[in-house]
Design brief:
6 strands; six-stranded mixed sheet; 30% helix; disordered N terminus
Length: 204
Protein backbone atom coordinates (compact mmCIF):
# COMPACT_ATOMS: atom_id res chain seq x y z
CA UNK A 1 0.00 0.00 0.00
CA UNK A 2 1.41 3.36 -1.02
CA UNK A 3 4.52 4.20 -2.98
CA UNK A 4 3.94 1.20 -5.21
CA UNK A 5 2.19 0.65 -8.51
CA UNK A 6 -0.38 -2.09 -8.44
CA UNK A 7 -3.24 -3.41 -10.51
CA UNK A 8 -6.78 -2.39 -9.58
CA UNK A 9 -8.90 -4.86 -7.66
CA UNK A 10 -12.65 -4.57 -7.15
CA UNK A 11 -13.83 -1.02 -7.81
CA UNK A 12 -13.53 -1.03 -11.60
CA UNK A 13 -13.36 -3.83 -14.20
CA UNK A 14 -9.98 -4.93 -15.52
CA UNK A 15 -9.08 -3.06 -18.67
CA UNK A 16 -6.28 -3.34 -21.20
CA UNK A 17 -3.24 -1.18 -20.46
CA UNK A 18 -2.75 2.23 -22.05
CA UNK A 19 -1.22 5.56 -21.09
CA UNK A 20 -2.38 6.73 -17.69
CA UNK A 21 -3.27 10.33 -16.96
CA UNK A 22 -0.89 11.95 -14.49
CA UNK A 23 -3.10 13.25 -11.67
CA UNK A 24 -1.75 14.89 -8.49
CA UNK A 25 -3.84 14.91 -5.31
CA UNK A 26 -3.11 17.94 -3.13
CA UNK A 27 -4.65 19.71 -0.13
CA UNK A 28 -3.95 20.61 3.47
CA UNK A 29 -3.06 17.91 5.96
CA UNK A 30 -6.04 15.95 7.34
CA UNK A 31 -8.28 16.92 4.42
CA UNK A 32 -8.69 13.27 3.42
CA UNK A 33 -6.41 13.00 0.38
CA UNK A 34 -5.15 9.49 1.13
CA UNK A 35 -8.67 8.34 2.01
CA UNK A 36 -9.74 9.52 -1.44
CA UNK A 37 -6.85 7.66 -3.07
CA UNK A 38 -7.49 4.32 -1.40
CA UNK A 39 -11.26 4.51 -1.78
CA UNK A 40 -10.64 4.82 -5.52
CA UNK A 41 -7.99 2.12 -5.54
CA UNK A 42 -9.53 -0.52 -3.27
CA UNK A 43 -13.21 0.52 -3.12
CA UNK A 44 -13.09 0.37 0.66
CA UNK A 45 -12.22 2.61 3.60
CA UNK A 46 -8.71 2.16 4.97
CA UNK A 47 -7.35 3.80 8.09
CA UNK A 48 -4.56 6.16 7.08
CA UNK A 49 -1.82 8.17 8.76
CA UNK A 50 -0.54 11.60 7.69
CA UNK A 51 1.46 11.24 4.48
CA UNK A 52 5.08 12.22 5.04
CA UNK A 53 6.07 11.92 1.41
CA UNK A 54 3.74 10.57 -1.24
CA UNK A 55 1.55 7.61 -2.13
CA UNK A 56 1.00 6.51 -5.70
CA UNK A 57 -1.53 4.19 -7.29
CA UNK A 58 -2.93 3.41 -10.74
CA UNK A 59 -6.68 3.13 -11.18
CA UNK A 60 -8.47 2.16 -14.40
CA UNK A 61 -12.16 2.63 -15.00
CA UNK A 62 -14.90 2.79 -17.54
CA UNK A 63 -16.67 6.13 -17.41
CA UNK A 64 -20.37 5.89 -16.61
CA UNK A 65 -22.75 6.55 -19.44
CA UNK A 66 -20.18 5.82 -22.14
CA UNK A 67 -17.74 3.22 -23.35
CA UNK A 68 -14.77 5.46 -22.82
CA UNK A 69 -11.95 3.99 -20.77
CA UNK A 70 -9.61 6.01 -18.63
CA UNK A 71 -6.49 5.13 -16.67
CA UNK A 72 -5.40 7.44 -13.86
CA UNK A 73 -1.97 7.47 -12.23
CA UNK A 74 -2.52 9.25 -8.93
CA UNK A 75 0.17 10.92 -6.84
CA UNK A 76 -1.05 11.74 -3.33
CA UNK A 77 1.39 14.24 -1.81
CA UNK A 78 1.65 15.15 1.88
CA UNK A 79 -0.11 18.34 2.90
CA UNK A 80 1.85 19.42 5.95
CA UNK A 81 3.18 22.96 5.64
CA UNK A 82 6.81 21.84 5.42
CA UNK A 83 5.97 19.52 2.49
CA UNK A 84 4.01 22.00 0.38
CA UNK A 85 7.09 23.50 -1.32
CA UNK A 86 7.56 20.02 -2.84
CA UNK A 87 4.18 20.09 -4.58
CA UNK A 88 5.66 21.88 -7.56
CA UNK A 89 7.94 18.94 -8.36
CA UNK A 90 4.97 16.56 -8.50
CA UNK A 91 2.64 18.80 -10.50
CA UNK A 92 5.14 19.42 -13.27
CA UNK A 93 3.71 17.75 -16.36
CA UNK A 94 0.42 16.84 -14.66
CA UNK A 95 -2.69 16.30 -16.76
CA UNK A 96 -4.95 17.32 -13.89
CA UNK A 97 -4.99 18.34 -10.24
CA UNK A 98 -7.28 17.11 -7.47
CA UNK A 99 -7.44 19.49 -4.51
CA UNK A 100 -9.15 18.04 -1.43
CA UNK A 101 -10.64 20.27 1.25
CA UNK A 102 -12.21 19.45 4.62
CA UNK A 103 -15.79 20.76 4.39
CA UNK A 104 -16.05 20.94 8.19
CA UNK A 105 -12.83 22.85 8.85
CA UNK A 106 -13.97 26.31 7.81
CA UNK A 107 -11.18 27.98 9.77
CA UNK A 108 -8.55 26.60 7.38
CA UNK A 109 -10.30 27.37 4.13
CA UNK A 110 -8.41 30.64 3.76
CA UNK A 111 -5.16 28.70 4.07
CA UNK A 112 -6.44 26.14 1.57
CA UNK A 113 -7.39 28.93 -0.82
CA UNK A 114 -3.90 30.42 -0.69
CA UNK A 115 -2.25 27.07 -1.41
CA UNK A 116 -4.67 26.19 -4.22
CA UNK A 117 -4.21 29.51 -5.99
CA UNK A 118 -0.44 29.33 -5.55
CA UNK A 119 -0.13 25.95 -7.24
CA UNK A 120 -2.71 26.69 -9.96
CA UNK A 121 -0.89 29.86 -10.97
CA UNK A 122 2.49 28.23 -11.47
CA UNK A 123 3.62 28.74 -15.04
CA UNK A 124 3.94 25.00 -15.66
CA UNK A 125 0.38 24.44 -14.42
CA UNK A 126 -1.14 27.06 -16.72
CA UNK A 127 -4.43 25.69 -18.00
CA UNK A 128 -4.25 22.41 -16.08
CA UNK A 129 -7.79 21.38 -15.00
CA UNK A 130 -8.55 21.35 -11.27
CA UNK A 131 -11.05 19.09 -9.50
CA UNK A 132 -11.83 20.45 -6.03
CA UNK A 133 -13.18 17.69 -3.79
CA UNK A 134 -15.30 19.09 -0.94
CA UNK A 135 -14.75 16.12 1.34
CA UNK A 136 -16.61 15.12 4.53
CA UNK A 137 -19.97 16.35 3.30
CA UNK A 138 -21.58 13.64 5.43
CA UNK A 139 -20.52 15.28 8.71
CA UNK A 140 -22.66 17.64 10.73
CA UNK A 141 -21.54 21.22 10.32
CA UNK A 142 -20.07 20.72 6.86
CA UNK A 143 -20.17 23.82 4.67
CA UNK A 144 -22.36 23.81 1.57
CA UNK A 145 -20.59 23.62 -1.81
CA UNK A 146 -21.56 27.22 -2.59
CA UNK A 147 -19.91 28.39 0.64
CA UNK A 148 -16.75 26.44 -0.18
CA UNK A 149 -16.67 27.82 -3.72
CA UNK A 150 -16.82 31.34 -2.33
CA UNK A 151 -14.27 30.71 0.43
CA UNK A 152 -11.79 29.24 -2.04
CA UNK A 153 -12.45 32.04 -4.56
CA UNK A 154 -12.62 29.49 -7.35
CA UNK A 155 -13.95 32.11 -9.74
CA UNK A 156 -10.67 33.97 -9.35
CA UNK A 157 -8.52 31.10 -10.63
CA UNK A 158 -8.79 32.73 -14.02
CA UNK A 159 -10.38 31.81 -17.35
CA UNK A 160 -7.41 29.68 -18.34
CA UNK A 161 -7.93 27.26 -15.43
CA UNK A 162 -10.95 24.98 -15.82
CA UNK A 163 -12.29 23.72 -12.51
CA UNK A 164 -15.11 21.71 -10.98
CA UNK A 165 -16.21 21.56 -7.34
CA UNK A 166 -17.44 18.11 -6.31
CA UNK A 167 -19.20 17.45 -2.96
CA UNK A 168 -17.99 14.11 -1.66
CA UNK A 169 -17.60 11.66 1.18
CA UNK A 170 -14.35 9.79 0.68
CA UNK A 171 -15.11 7.22 3.38
CA UNK A 172 -17.96 5.72 1.36
CA UNK A 173 -16.80 7.02 -2.02
CA UNK A 174 -19.84 9.18 -2.70
CA UNK A 175 -19.16 11.81 -5.35
CA UNK A 176 -15.68 10.59 -6.30
CA UNK A 177 -16.70 8.83 -9.51
CA UNK A 178 -18.67 11.85 -10.68
CA UNK A 179 -15.75 14.11 -9.88
CA UNK A 180 -13.30 12.01 -11.87
CA UNK A 181 -15.63 12.01 -14.86
CA UNK A 182 -15.73 15.80 -14.81
CA UNK A 183 -11.95 15.96 -14.46
CA UNK A 184 -11.52 13.57 -17.39
CA UNK A 185 -13.89 15.67 -19.50
CA UNK A 186 -11.93 18.85 -18.71
CA UNK A 187 -8.63 17.15 -19.57
CA UNK A 188 -10.05 15.86 -22.86
CA UNK A 189 -11.37 19.30 -23.79
CA UNK A 190 -8.02 20.93 -23.01
CA UNK A 191 -6.14 18.38 -25.12
CA UNK A 192 -8.41 19.01 -28.08
CA UNK A 193 -7.87 22.74 -27.73
CA UNK A 194 -4.09 22.33 -27.58
CA UNK A 195 -4.13 20.12 -30.69
CA UNK A 196 -6.16 22.71 -32.56
CA UNK A 197 -3.70 25.43 -31.56
CA UNK A 198 -0.81 23.30 -32.79
CA UNK A 199 -2.50 22.71 -36.17
CA UNK A 200 -3.18 26.42 -36.56
CA UNK A 201 0.47 27.25 -35.84
CA UNK A 202 1.62 24.76 -38.47
CA UNK A 203 -0.60 26.40 -41.08
CA UNK A 204 0.99 29.81 -40.56
Amino acid sequence: MGNGLSEPRSLFPALPPFRALHIVILGLDCAGKTTVLYRLRFNEFLNTVPTKGFNTEKVRLTLDGSRKRASFHFWDVGGQEKLRPLWRAYTRGADGLVFVVDSVDGERLEEARAELHKVARLAENHGVPVLVVANKQDLRGSLAPAQIEEALALGELGPSTPWHLQPACAIIGEGLGEGLERLHAMITKRRKSLRQQQRQRRKR
